[in-house]
Specification:
Pfam families: DA1-like (PF12315). The protein is mostly helical. About 75% of the residues lie in helices and about 0% in strands.
């Protein structure tokens, strides 16, 4: 889960470069990348709820201490909480500003605004 979250974040950096985004302030760039990482993590947590293992695979999947769906859910919720409550001005405040913008305007409009102005819409 942590690796996937990091990859989603880093892939957003790459996508923005390929799309011609100019150099952004750290809080805007890292913030929108954290929004995407957060979305990815939420999607993983939601998809894990839909998986209902059979009794035989469930026994095999939980034979080691600290493994299995319950552990994965707790771990994912921990990573999600870490993104949401990060105290840093760049990653934490940037995430919260980006999350607010995306919730208010949607991802497409937010990205268009960032591309044009270099800032989050408010």
């Amino acid at each position: 889960l942590l690796t996937g979250t990091i990859l989603a974040h880093e892939m957003m950096h790459g996508w923005m470069r390929l799309q011609g985004f100019r150099t952004l302030s750290p809080d805007v760039e890292e913030g929108i990348c954290q929004v995407i990482a957060h979305w990815w993590l939420i999607s993983q947590l939601k998809s894990s709820k839909k998986v209902t293992p059979t009794s035989s695979s469930s026994a095999a999947g939980t034979s080691k201490k600290g493994t299995g769906p319950k552990f994965d859910k707790k771990l994912g919720e921990f990573f999600k909480h870490q993104i949401e409550t990060d105290a840093s001005p760049v990653y934490g405040d940037g995430f919260r500003a980006g999350q607010h913008a995306v919730q208010k305007y949607g991802l497409g409009r937010t990205l268009d605004h960032i591309r044009r102005t270099g800032r989050f819409p408010y």
